[in-house]
Design a protein that fits this description.
Blueprint lengths: L10 E4 L3 H13 L7 E4 L3 H9 L3 E3 L2 H5 L4 E4 L21 E4 L6 H8 L4 E6 L9 E7 L9 H8 L2 E5 L5 H9 L1 H18 L4 H21 L4 H8 L5 H11 L2 H19 L2
Parallel strand pairs: 1-2, 1-4, 2-3, 4-5, 5-6, 7-8
Antiparallel strand pairs: 6-7
The structure holds NADPH dihydro-nicotinamide-adenine-dinucleotide phosphate and (2S)-3,4-dihydro-2H-pyrrole-2-carboxylic acid (A1CAB).
Length: 272
């Protein structure tokens, strides 16, 4: 597909990495935006190539992408904010800045833009890639009514999008932003255990993926909560009880609580 050349893009994307790609794919699939309404900036020729493959005009220089866009999506790593001189080009009256950077507060973004700015922060997660994202959206102090509309549409197109306060975002980041990694950690451990018990790696992989997928679908669809669903699998004196006792004796629930607390603390630290 040859990239479009928008004269006044609706959305300028700064940082066309994994998350930006997931967000754009979801938005295009749902028809929320067309590729000709987007311009993306990335240092990496390979990432610009990915954008071109989506039909999006891609440039190297963020400053040249920003001009005229209705909204600017900041999708670089939090550590890159300091070197984003292009933010000085933001029209703070006319443009909305949507940031997915973990931990970076609205006031820091506004400072980088040169003063009060219409900032909307979003914490998405990678299941966006398959249309099953969980995204939380917080409007900053200088955002106007309706400034979160594009974010709600964009992120709602690829899963669930909910409004939260900025104060809640560190906890959200720890739970749903990083959350997919916790499940993948469990998948790794289950696959290794299955192979350790003598199952072929391909069989272990199939069984673990389908077990996690089916369990997540059951949790999502059921009126029962997680403890009730767990009780239904656990026959008294049976195999699940034997496993659960080991998990409890080894403090797995405490470990998960501590891990999520560490993620929230790290998100707060990234605020600088
Ligand atoms: N991954 C996840 O699960 C989640 C991530 N986030 C947030 O999403 C953000 C993006 O993450 P992710 O997509 O994984 O990051 P990536 O590193 O994949 O993508 C960022 C891209 O931006 C480029 N870049 C950096 N600075 C500039 C600049 N000034 N101008 C143009 N391009 C630039 C980088 O190039 P180069 O590599 O050459 O520097 C890179 O290609 C992060 O802030 C993260 O906190 C939020 C929720 C979940
Ligand atoms: O690990 C991180 O910092 C980012 C934010 C949430 C998921 N990934």
């Amino acid at each position: 597909m040859s990239p479009a050349q928008p004269t006044a893009p609706r959305l300028a994307v700064v940082g066309a990495g994994n998350m930006a790609e997931a967000i754009l794919r979801g938005a295009f699939a749902a028809g929320v935006l067309g590729p000709d309404e987007v311009v993306a900036a990335d240092f990496s020729p390979a990432r610009r190539g990915v954008m071109a493959g989506l039909g999006v005009a891609a440039v190297e220089d963020a400053a040249s992408a920003i001009g005229g866009a209705e909204a600017v999506l900041l999708a670089v790593k939090p550590q890159a904010l300091g070197s984003l001189g292009a933010l000085g080009r933001i029209d703070r009256d006319a443009q909305v800045v949507v940031s997915i950077m973990a931990g970076v507060r609205c006031d820091r973004i506004a400072h980088a833009c040169g003063g009060p700015t219409r900032v909307v922060r979003v914490m998405p997660n990678t299941p966006l890639l398959v249309g099953r994202g969980a995204s939380a959206i917080a409007s900053g102090p200088d955002a106007r009514d309706g400034d979160d509309a594009l974010a709600l549409e964009l992120f709602g197109a690829a899963g669930v999008a909910v409004r939260v306060s900025e104060a809640e975002l560190d906890a959200v980041t720890a739970v749903s932003g990083s959350g997919p990694a916790y499940l993948f950690h469990l998948a790794e451990a289950m696959q290794a255990a299955a192979v350790g018990l003598g199952l072929a790696p391909e069989l272990a992989d199939t069984l673990v993926r389908q077990t996690l997928l089916g369990s997540a679908a059951l949790l999502a669809a059921s009126d029962a909560d997680a403890p009730q669903l767990r009780a239904r699998v656990t026959s008294p004196g049976g195999t699940t009880q034997a496993a659960t006792e080991v998990l409890e004796n080894r403090g797995v629930q405490d470990s998960i609580r501590a891990a999520i607390a560490a993620a929230a603390a790290r998100s707060a630290e990234l605020a600088g």
